[in-house]
Amino acid sequence: MEKILTKNVGKPNSQDIEVYLGGGGYKALEKALGMKPKDVIAEVKKSKLVGRGGAAFPTGLKWEFTRRESAEPKFIACNADEGEPGTFKDRVILLNDPHLLLEALIIGGYAIGASKGFIYIRGEYYREIETVEKAVEQARTKGYLGDNILGSGFSFDVQLYKGAGAYVCGEETALLESMEGNRGCPDCRPPFPAESGFLGKPTAVNNVETLCNIPAIMINGGEWYSRIGSPDSPGPKLYCLSGHVNKPGVYELPMGITLRELIENHGEGVKGEFKAALPGGVSSCLLANLDVKLDYKSVARAGSMLGSGAVIVINEDTSIIDVAKNTMEFFARESCGKCSVCREGTRRAREILTRFANGGGKAKELDLMLELGEVMYDTACCGLGQAAMNTTASAIRLFREEFEQKVRK
Ligand SMILES: Cc1cc2nc3c(=O)[nH]c(=O)nc-3n(C[C@H](O)[C@H](O)[C@H](O)COP(=O)(O)O)c2cc1C
Ligand code: SF4
């Protein structure tokens, strides 16, 4: 497949605007500015692009909802927090092709009627922040940002925000709270950010990878894009492959390749024997079947979620209880504490899993953890609490004997 998202990665000085322009950069913006905003949105809807940040919400629809709101001003915020463990794809674009992101963000701003865009980057991404800052300056100098862009009458500028290292601030409402200078705590919805986001104004929040599909859609059309990869959720996908594989890395492949193809053809196989994989980072359920197609619907049908596409491979030598315990340590630390079910649930689960890891589990606690997972899914305010038990619950379902061997006799 021809590369769309990483086509410039590896080119010398790919971050430089001259190199980007030399490869046809900012032509998609020119084209979009010659269209009506509603036609830009129609093209994105035709492409069937869905968000790559985790929730897989249709991007065209999100833009339409934001545009439709009467309140002004409107904003577009790019989510570059990239906090899900095992996810390291957005940084590849931020570091190598920042103008691809800027071009997409400007098009998004034009489509929804925003004059201001934000990029919220995780604070640890020092080099990425510096690279994007330079790109913003270059785009301003060349007239792609600022007043009356390319003589179109459309004005737009971009501001960067640096995150302070909280995983939960990648959740869109917590991200907006953080941008406003408040504690990064998710809000219960509705209202959704499209209606009431940054400073209470309509805001479209889009992931880096999601946005970077937009220039190719503008140039080639939504119809063309909808034929790439899986018909259910088309397009290219940046898969982050890590864990027990011989060649970990970020692979741009058509949506819907199988887990087996990804691991064997691209990751050069498992180090040791395959036991299971997390397809969407530590928020997802374990898969033990290598023939699952890695697109949103197929992974959901297999009982998990593709999320941000963070595929973590686990080999036979690994204790599944340790995997569950490690993920729960992460969630217990990162829970913002707003909902008691998440704040207390993750801590109690961590205690139980630590007991199992030390050979002191209680048999009845296995079903108790499954029940806790259901209660957290039903009642937690945000995706962190709703998904925190996924890895643990799937570990119990798939590898119950391993847990039973650790029950205190
Ligand atoms: C706990 C938590 C962390 C999240 N972290 C990120 C993140 O780092 N980057 C991201 O793009 N989306 C993240 N999301 C998803 C966002 O809330 C939101 O759905 C996404 O940014 C929307 O963009 P998209 O439609 O382009 O995917 C997270 C969600 C949750 C619940
Ligand atoms: S589910 Fe957890 S992280 Fe999300 S708002 Fe509630 S306490 Fe905070």
Written account of the structure:
With 409 residues, the protein is an alpha/beta fold. The protein has 3 domains: 17-226, NADH-ubiquinone oxidoreductase 51kDa subunit (Rossmann fold), CATH 3.40.50; 237-315, Ubiquitin-like (UB roll) (Roll), CATH 3.10.20; 320-404, de novo design (two linked rop proteins), CATH 1.20.1440.230. 44% of the residues lie in helices and 13% in strands. The protein has 19 helices and 8 strands. It has helices at 17-22, 27-33, 37-47, 59-68, 90-96, 98-112, 126-141, 172-179, 208-212, 214-220, 222-226, 259-266, 296-301, 320-334, 340-357, 364-379, 383-387, 390-398, 400-404; strands at residues 74-80, 114-121, 157-162, 203-207, 236-243, 249-254, 274-282, 310-315. It has a 4-stranded parallel sheet with strand order 3-2-1-4, sandwiched between helices. It has a 4-stranded mixed sheet with strand order 6-5-8-7, with helices on one face. The longest helix has 18 residues, at 340-357. The radius of gyration is 22 Å and the shape is globular. The mean pLDDT is 97. It binds flavin mononucleotide and iron/sulfur cluster.
List the helices and strands and how they pair.
Layout: H1 17-22, H2 27-33, H3 37-47, H4 59-68, E1 74-80, H5 90-96, H6 98-112, E2 114-121, H7 126-141, E3 157-162, H8 172-179, E4 203-207, H9 208-212, H10 214-220, H11 222-226, E5 236-243, E6 249-254, H12 259-266, E7 274-282, H13 296-301, E8 310-315, H14 320-334, H15 340-357, H16 364-379, H17 383-387, H18 390-398, H19 400-404
Parallel strand pairs: 1-2, 1-4, 2-3, 5-8
Antiparallel strand pairs: 5-6, 7-8
Helix pairs in contact: 2-6, 2-10, 3-4, 3-6, 5-7, 14-15, 15-16, 16-18
The structure holds flavin mononucleotide and iron/sulfur cluster.
